Amino acid sequence: MDFNIVIAGEAGQGLKTVEAMLTKTFSRHGYYLFSTKDYMSRVRGGHNFMQIRISDQKLEGPDEGIDLLLALNEESVEIHRSEMNEDGTMISEIESDENDIVYIDAKGLAKDVNPRAVNTVFVGAAFKIMGLPTEEAEEAVKEHFADKESIIEDNLTLLKAGYEAVEQLYNLKGLGKKDDRMVIDGNSAVGLGALLAGLSYYAAYPMSPSTGILHYVASKQEELGIVVEQAEDEIAAINMVLGGTYSGLRSMTGTSGGGLALMAEGIGLAGVTETPIVIADVQRPGPATGLPTRTGQGDLLFAVNIAQDEFPLMVLAPKDQEDAVYQTFRAFNLADKYQLPVIILSDQFIGDGSKTIKEIDTSDMKIERHLVDPAEVEGEYKRYKYTEDGISPRAYPGQLEDNVVLSDSDEHDEFAHIVEDAETRNKMVAKRSKKMAKLKKEDLLEPDYYGPEDPDYILVGWGSTAGPLTEARKMLADEYKVGHLAFNDVWPLPTKEIEAKAASGAKLVYVENNAGAQFDRLVRSETGIKADYNILKDDGRPFSGREIYRRFKEEVSK
Amino acid sequence: MVDKNIYQADRETAWCPGCGNFPLRTALSEALSEMDLKPEEVTMFTGIGQAAKMPHYIKVNGFNGLHGRSIPPAVAMRVANPKMTVIVESGDGCTYGEGGNHILHNIRRNLDIIHLVHDNQIYGLTKGQASPTSMAELITPVQTHGVNAEPFNPVRFAVGMKASFVARSTVGDREHLKEMVKEAKKHKGYALIDIFQPCVSFNKINTYQWYNKRVYKLEDHDPTDHAAAMKVADKFGDEIPIGVIYREEKPTFRERIPYLKDKALVDRDVKVEDMEYLIKEFK
């Protein structure tokens, strides 16, 4: 069972409310969900849509073709008509003789009850058409509009009105609530991972599509007693976060490409001052303003080369919403262990999209701050003490009695004082690079491999393409011996697995959401290994498994 | 009183002989000593420039960050540790030029900090270009026919914004400067002191003599009277007033985050178990 629902209309029509109610209800009926958002950078008007794919099997990405369209305006019928599956149905306020359109007088039904709740008529109609009862939807309405008694009542009335106005067309049935699952969007997932890791200070400037992280952590700040600061610009945000860590707080910022560009110097400062910070870059297509509300993987090489000269830096890319929680948690521990900036490369596809995932398991999560034990500091504290592994004892001001803590942007000596001599410079560069060597040895994640032991083709991806690639591999498995290599850590680049796979003679097919095959270029520059094929997409839209399958057949196995 | 030698304000520096930064450092160490603050009880955030090297030349906690970005890192210290005395210190180019956006918004935040700006009306470290406070007639290797913009009057700007404490002082009167620093510390909220500090190498107009001839101590001025403060702030030229120009008690940044109360965020003890309820909210 695989059913694709699209809710379409213009900005300001309340698509989000519809999506929230549907998502919750399907989830409680025991379905797996995968939802994506396609919206324009505007407050009202335009054309926006959300896709909710549901199945009794685990879902890894969006699919093409629409089974049920909730057309909240007339335009949506025309825009999405060509994507309708053969047995697909459109719910619309257009009176039509065509048998794929179910007419509903939503505005008429809502007029005397509550015109603002008109969308709920569509929700009611959708459940009837699909063959699902409304009890779970009623619960979802009550939760969504909690503390607004009269609004709940209006919505329940309209839910029922919509339900009764149409005929059942499908037979979906409830599968029973599953307790070991949750539904989460990628931005909240990054925020959740950070809060689990003990985030105390988040400073950011709002920027699509990263703002969801800011909103989520801000919604928790009072109950957790943490501080979320809206900075005056991204330059302030990154420097605030540096000050946060320096002051002893686990600190993080989030942005998208343009904001990351403004943060570049600050990330270099984190490198030279050895200040652990976490930066989430929720990618959108660029350059400059680009496509503000859409997805891409075009920031990879920029992130890896984020600031002038060289310094220890880690870049990792979550594969999906579930992974985003664990990877963000891990990012904080690694930042603290190696005293370096960690960039999390997420994107709009997973950031704005929601997925049914296994409930997050915290049993292996341990907060590791790696701060100095004051008892071990003898004499004058050396913030940048030379050590075997390059990691110096890190303290925050006020932590040590009779000792001050100094951090410096200039090249410095062990006490953090400015120096210009070549000898100290060489020693400090060597000290910092030792940390990278240790990280590579102890903590770098090699990519996961899925598929046969002797593949003819290997689909290579990083970050958020993992889901669609999983679905594509399964579709291709009937016809080809094809594997999938999914990278989490992209900088420093783990090279063992890709080298082994390349040596096996399998053809490497890189699949990336960018125009210039950036990961291919990165792997090539680090290992000399070249892609045999590149399947690229840079139109701001995510891949679906079906699309990769089709393009594999068109471009690889011709 | 803490022994002022503890701040080691006699360390070797990269400043030019005769630089106005020297008397400023001395005044600061004397003020810290008289305020009875131990080095570990003070954190200084600086940008880049000759002035911004201060935490290397005086012993306190220090975060010597980026050019123009002396204030943003200080914001977190205010929530992390309310007991810490926070000084932000940098030059006029760093503070009013590269970092203009930050001073604007941090006056709005009203962080409880002492903000010392070394104002020598020139770029020293990059060898003598105009700064935001340079006078129109200043000729430099870049401003070959004078400055193409009007000088920025930081005091007028800050009083105009109703910054909660605005003062002007000069290294030519070390005792006055020391008293201003102590006043700023006493004040609850953001406290700007714009400090005349001659650049002996590059600024041949705004010299010690130039300042000394023009500055006068404010008398019979009510710094809580905003209209009067605006008039005083407007004075810059033949007569330059020094002293506390404007003062207004208002809620600080921390006080606007009521749930922090008097807690130091740095003492927050987090366990993953305590956060697990967040996971359940997504079910």
TrEMBL record, chain A:
GO terms for molecular function: oxidoreductase activity, acting on the aldehyde or oxo group of donors. Residues 193-430 form the Pyruvate flavodoxin/ferredoxin oxidoreductase pyrimidine binding domain. The keyword Oxidoreductase applies. Residues 11-164 form the Pyruvate/ketoisovalerate oxidoreductase catalytic domain. One of its GO terms (biological process) is response to oxidative stress. Pfam families: POR (PF01558), POR_N (PF01855). Keywords: Oxidoreductase. This is 2-oxoglutarate ferredoxin oxidoreductase subunit alpha. It comes from Halanaerobium congolense.
TrEMBL record, chain B:
Residues 51-195 form the Thiamine pyrophosphate enzyme TPP-binding domain. One of its GO terms (biological process) is cellular respiration. Signal peptide: none annotated. Its cofactor is [4Fe-4S] cluster; Mg(2+); thiamine diphosphate. Keywords: Iron, Iron-sulfur, Magnesium, Metal-binding, Oxidoreductase, Thiamine pyrophosphate. InterPro entries: 2-oxoacid:Fd_oxidoreductase, OFOB, PFO_beta_C, THDP-binding, TPP_enzyme_TPP-bd. Pfam families: PFO_beta_C, TPP_enzyme_C. Gene3D superfamilies: 3.40.50.970. It comes from the Bacteria. Transmembrane segments: none annotated. GO terms for molecular function: iron-sulfur cluster binding; metal ion binding; oxidoreductase activity, acting on the aldehyde or oxo group of donors, iron-sulfur protein as acceptor; thiamine pyrophosphate binding. Residues 199-261 form the Pyruvate ferredoxin oxidoreductase beta subunit C-terminal domain. The keyword Magnesium applies. NCBIfam families: PorB_KorB (TIGR02177). This is 2-oxoglutarate ferredoxin oxidoreductase subunit beta. It comes from Halanaerobium congolense.
